[in-house]
Amino acid sequence: MTWSATARGAHQPDNTAFTQQRLPAWQPLLSAGIALPLFFCAGLAFIGLGLGLYYSSNGIKELEYDYTGNPGTGNCSVCAQAGQGRAPPPSCSCAWCFALPELFQGPVYLYYELSNFYQNNRRYGVSRDDAQLSGLPSALHHPVNECAPYQLSAAGLPIAPCGAIANSLFNDSFSLWHQRQPGGPYVEVPLDRTGIAWWTDYHVKFRNPPLVNGSLALAFQGTAPPPNWPRPVYDLSSDPNNTGFINQDFVVWMRTAALPTFRKLYARIRQGNYSAGLPRGAYCVNIIYNYPVRAFGGHKRLIFSSISWMGGKNPFLGIAYLVVGSLCILTGFVMLVVYIRYQDQNDEDEDEQ
Amino acid sequence: MFCSEKKLLEVERKVKANDREYNEKFQYADNRIHTSKYNILTFLPINLFEQFQRVANAYFLFLLILQLIPEISSLTWFTTIVPLVLVITMTAVKDATDDCFRHKSDNQVNNRQSEVLIDGKLQNEKWMNVKVGDIIKLENNQFVAADLLLLSSSEPHGLCYIETAELDGETNLKVRHALAVTSELGADISRLAKFDGIVVCEAPNNKLDKFTGVLSWKDSKYPLNNEKIILRGCVLRNTSWCFGMVIFAGPDTKLMQNSGKTKFKRTSIDRLMNTLVLWIFGFLVCLGIILAIGNSIWEKQVGDQFRSFLFWKEGEKNSVFSGFLTFWSYIIILNTVVPISLYVSVEVIRLGHSYFINWDRKMYYSGKATPAEARTTTLNEELGQIEYVFSDKTGTLTQNIMTFKKCSINGRIYGEVQDDLGRKTDITKKKEPVDFSVNSQAERTFQFFDHNLMEAIKLGDPKVHEFLRLLALCHTVMSEENSAGQLIYQVQSPDEGALVTAARNFGFTFKSRTPETITIEELGTLVTYQLLAFLDFNNIRKRMSVIVRNPKGQIKLYSKGADTILFEKLHPSNEDLLTLTSDHLSEFAGEGLRTLAIAYRDLDDKYFKEWHKMLEDANTATDERDERIAGLYEEIERDLMLLGATAVEDKLQEGVIETVTSLSLANIKIWVLTGDKQETAINIGYACNMLTDDMNDVFIIAGNTAAEVREELRKAKENLFGQNRSFSNGHVVFEKKQQLELASVVEETITGDYALVINGHSLAHALESDVKNDLLELACMCKTVVCCRVTPLQKAQVVELVKKYRNAVTLAIGDGANDVSMIKSKRTLTQWGMLHTWSPRGAHIGVGISGQEGLQAVLASDYSFAQFRYLQRLLLVHGRWSYFRMCKFLCYFFYKNFAFTLVHFWFGFFCGFSAQTVYDQWFITLFNIVYTSLPVLAMGIFDQDVNDQNSMDYPQLYQPGQQNLLFNKRKFLICMAHGIYTSLALFFIPYGAFYNAAGEDGQHLADYQSFAVTMATSLVIVVSVQIALDTSYWTVVNHVFIWGSIATYFSILFTMHSNGIFAIFPNQFPFVGNARHSLTQKCIWLVILLTTVASVMPVVAFRFLKVDLFPTLSDQLRQRQKAQKKARPLHSRRPQTRRSSSRRSGYAFAHQEGYGELITSGKNMRAKNLPPTSGLEKTLYNSTSWIENLCKKTTDTVSSFSQDKTVKL
Predict the structure, then answer these.
(1) Do the annotations mark residue B818 as ligand-binding?
(2) Which InterPro entries match (chain A) (predicted)?
(3) Is B426 annotated in the active site?
């Protein structure tokens, strides 16, 4: 109202740095003294880093084999042909044999790679129930709606694990055989399949439901396996620490990939004679070919790879660092030139004044 | 107002006095007022309803609804609802507190006490219980509770005086008078209680100066008009009591009808922002369509074959349908380009700036203990873009205080101060003023520094005595004694007040007057002069004279007037003195003083008698009366003996000259719109350096007809272009014809300074549509424009003209009610279906000078402070900073959100256009409101490029704001490009690095969640580095917010990825363990580092080069400021205070003619002041006519809105 206005604010404002906008402040300026050294230093550092990254990435050996089985690409094409259009495809095995002329420096990791596989599709990605996978008994029997249409089986039983991701579990399996001498016997190379999942995934995120009478099978009673699965989840492995929701292959699969071409760790080779790497000789990978990818134009690959201090082989980062570093130096020079010319001009101007 | 519908039907109001039962039939509003909007119950629904009427809120509600549809919900509902609830709660809290204050003030007003006549007795009642038809008693200095019909008062003839400052801001008293029949009721309670008149009148409306109605009482009807009505909000003055009957109460009163809601003002940044938001929506839809098409193609080519892993319900397999759903999904995901927090942040920043204005001690006026006040919190950055300032004169540029400064008596100047060496010096505080303490009648506030005059008086210089005697006799001042026995002068014009007060202090005190006598105290002795004739002032005569007979029997004519006029009337013997005085006048004028020449004439008895007889004849004549009188006046006012001249200072407000100079350096054009006369206005123009003698030309447009005005404008233009052509060596200026677009081009080519002075009459013609453009074109090329004798409506029209055709940001500053129209934006008056004939809108920003002429201007204003000079600080410091900060804020905000959101677009190409988000949903929810809001807010509130001193010292710094350089569509596109670039870096560097990569432990790295965390972390770091770069003024707050934001990000990240929270909500926090795992990988930090450097380095390089190659003034100053903490001004910015010396003397009386008649008739004198003899009879004899006369004059004064004020000295 109008009449009260006179009485308001008849006080002098406080004389504080805050109210008077005089707060002490650091007023950085983009001066040549800062910007130029910054660019040159950053450029040099980046080039250094880039070189390091590039060479360590190049030092990593990779052995890759596409076993999709497209016609005429090796003996897996038989399996691919056999599995064409049949669900579930019949079990079929094929092999990939190769020779190593020299030691494949270890530790060696075995990956499988799928391409054109959209694990990052939203509808695919949301189709899971983390509560169920964390072993909550209530969630086990009541999967979330996001899992639909893999929420309930045809019989109306809740599916465990529910959802499209679990349903599409990668189920090829590999074994590696080594022939030390030509004509010698093939010895199976031990594959360490235990530490392939993230620690947190294996210990926190994925938990089996509480055992019923000491039996995991009973705990899963009243649930149905995903339609594509030949066996129920508690039968994934005979090892009680690697079955059910905490089966490492399953856990690795459930950590969905960001990109449509992705690798997932299958095993490490670090035991026995192979702790230093794969010695030279002939090798064969025996592949149990189950997983159909040709229908959507996907590819399956097997990769042996070692790693360096910065991870697996990836030349991109090294090159990117080199490029950015060089650009920094280049820009630095441009700035330097401009700065010097401007300085001259400025001095002249001041002289004129 | 729920009752308004019903009230629309009221076309006529019927009120019966003292009859509540009768009046209740009509259900008139009672006197309770409600300015509050809500009560406890209605708050939530009404407030929510109001809030969702805002486009932004409605848009987010729409998004929320979209998100609830599972098929398209790409984000969970909480990403939208959390910010929305936050925003709505904040607004609701603000609305609630505002309303609380309104409730409080309502209660305070409603609970005021008034005396109401109930059941034949006067009873105390609260205002809110007063009903229509009640008779209430008012006492002196009380606020009027409702619109009343005046019945009777303590004064004769049922007169009462009111002050209407609250209504129209005018502090002069107005007279209201009761009907003769009702004024007879007096204070007789029993008779008043029996009063049962019925008033039939118009329905409630907002016209303050109009009222029509009829009172029916005792079988006769009496017409009622505005003169019988006292409005709510007025204060009763000089009247010990009065009785009135309530006609309109509460919301129906004219005051409340006038306090309509003001239209919401928007700043140009607001409008730009709205346009940009529309652009962004368009952009959003485009992105959505691209992605939807992509989705359709993908579904057809890839998704269809992917069927064993992906699924669609039967019937949804159609790829086009999938694309349609995807479109909406992407609209949801990408909505963060226009985050809701933008609107809130803008409001918060403006609020902060408003507080800084309120807190600024350099805009606090200790003299009146008034701090500056930002009454609107939404316009601050517009203060940094002002191009035109429209200023009132009186009370704004000037203090409306006239001080007697100097005089020239008989060829000698008094009032100049000389130092010991005899040189002229400026008057400083150190100099001892003349001591008036011996004179008991002296006015304390009057100061005079030249002791010579006092000496001359003591020495008895007859000319000096005559001079002062003249000042004490020849005027229209009325005197009064207050309770303390002090003499109080009621003056019509402050000039006269100054002269009479000066005479009083020098011992010639005007004591009292009757219609026939004037009593003065001459150096302690009372002398009564007989007033024989009063030759009044008018515009043509420009002088006034009195003819008096002194006690010795001598008849003298005393005259004062404009020198040009008076000098022609002098006796030839005055030649020498005339030259001398003339020089003095020039000198006075050069100092910006208002001058008057003073002369007298001795008359012999016989001559006067003859003349007087002729005058009486002329007075009674029917034909050519005025001409005959004028002739007679001419006849007697000749052969005058020159006494000297006076110089009165129309005191400018402090710092006006500096402010004006500084603002014009800032390229702000100042137009003076004043109700004053042309001479006065020009004088002031010179005084405050708006007009100077260095100007090439000052065009004066003073035509009386449309044709004349057009011709004058045309000539002025021709003149201007002609002169300019010669100046600018034949610039091509002939195509400028009436093309306003070209005007600005032409404007650039104009060299030299021009000024335009236009008066109200001409303005009325010039504002007609066909001449308007000429006027505008001319005016805009002039450095200074002075409009004089303008009405409030014209003020608003001028503002509107410039606003509309120049597309410039305008500011109006004023102090009085007559400035309200230009200050205030249009009111909504549609409640009664009535609109003003043409109500132009006011300036973009209205500034009120507080504490001068009532509150109206302040109440209507957006900003208020006590002194004109604070405008400099308001614009150059606060406005500039506000604009600077707001622009920086907007640039950064848009950049940030483009960078944040567009990553989803790139990702779309790699995830089958499936509307998969890149980030964690929680990150999307919190990014804008938690992780990045505070640093940018701190920048928006605290940032400064140069400090306040430099902002004031270099007014040129203001120009980027006027030219809209810091944030415009181009800048927006640059921000957008910057954002897009960053989003590319943010997406493709991790993409390349993650492609088939493995972690240090050999485990695969490129999982969706790690990717999301990497990108989110890079984003937070990149935008934090960017804000760190943008922040040029790192206060503690900035440090805390910037570092704190990063710290907050990491702590929230680790919390949300922790085991504990996953155990509680496994489905809501599926990122468990991610931060731990990803952020311990060297490779990921390398990615983050690379992304940051790649995003920021180009910006750094660009800025460095820009500062080096095209440094702005602000850049230079920053460097200078850095180099030497205490930067000295580049050039001497001391404004020139030297005034030009051309003669601009003029009769500076601001009052209207005709008061002399009132004085000689004694009509405006209280009965008790009159001698008990003939005077009373005379008064009674023509009582009706003189009241009408007086009232007519009062209304004239009101309606002409001239600056005439009755000022109490």
Answers:
(1) yes
(2) CDC50/LEM3_fam
(3) no
Rg (Cα) of chain A, in Å, rounded?
Answer: 31
Measured CA distances, B262 to B375, B457, B841 (Å): 13, 59, 11
Predicted confidence (pLDDT) at residue B1121 exceeds the cutoff of 90: no
pLDDT tens for A37-92 read 999 999 999 999 999 999 998 888 889 999 888 877 777 888 888 777 666 667 78
- Subunit contact A21:B1010, Cβ cutoff 8 A: no
- The SS3 call for residue B11 is coil
- Which of B355, B358, B998 lies at the smallest CB-CB distance from A311? B998
Residues in A closer than 8 angstroms to B362, CB to CB, are 20
Average pLDDT, chain A: 86
B422: Cβ–Cβ under 8 A, 6 or more apart, which residues? none
- What number is the average pLDDT over the span B267-282? 85
Q: What's the rounded Cα separation, in Å, for the pair A50 and A315?
A: 10
Q: Which residues of A touch B1066 (CB under 8 A)?
A: 130-131, 133-134, 136, 139
Mutation pick from B309, B370, B1030, B1119 vs chain A, by most beta carbons of A within 10 Å, is B309
Q: What is the DSSP string of B382-409?
A: GGGS--EEEE-SBTTTEEEEEEEEEEEE
Question: B437 CB contacts (<8 Å, ≥6 apart)?
Answer: none
Of the pLDDT bands very low, low, confident and very high (cuts 50, 70, 90), residue A5 is very low
Strand residues in B1037-1192 grouped as ranges (E): none
DSSP string, B587-652: HHHHTT-EEEEEEEEEE-HHHHHHHHHHHHHHHH-SSSHHHHHHHHHHHHS-SBEEEEEEEEEEEE
Q: What is the pLDDT of residue B1089?
A: 95
Residue B392 assigned as binding residue: yes
B328: which chain A residues are within 8 Å (Cβ-Cβ)? none
Query: Whole-angstrom Cα distance, residue A243 to residue B1027?
Result: 50
The least confident of A157-161, A338-342, B536-540, B861-865 is B536-540
pTM of the entire structure?
A: 0.81
pLDDT at B181: 84
CB contacts < 8 A (A, B)? 324
Question: Which chain B residues contact residue A249 at CB under 8 A?
Answer: none
Rounded-to-integer distance, Cα B778 and Cα B801, Å:
13
pLDDT digits (tens, 9 = 90+) for B706-763: 888 888 888 888 887 765 544 444 333 343 344 444 444 444 455 677 888 888 888 8
Nearest to B361 among A20, A133, A311 (CB): A20
CA B737 – CA A144 distance, rounded (Å): 75
Digit-coded pLDDT (tens) for A198-247: 988 999 999 999 988 888 889 998 899 998 888 899 988 888 888 889 99
Nearest to B1032 among A21, A27, A168 (CB): A27
CA distance B770 to B790: 20
Average pLDDT over residues B1026-1055: 94
Q: Residue B154's closest CA among B226, B232, B243, B227?
A: B243
Q: What is the pLDDT of residues B298-342, one digit of tens each?
A: 888 887 777 666 666 655 567 888 889 899 999 989 988 877 778
Q: Is B394 flagged in the annotation as binding? A: yes
Q: Kindly state whether A353 is in contact with chain B, defined as any CB-CB distance less than 8 angstroms.
A: no
Which pLDDT value is given to residue B981?
95
Structure token digits, residue B1195: 């209304």
Residue B496 annotated in ligand binding? yes
Of B233, B355, B1000, the CB nearest to A310: B1000
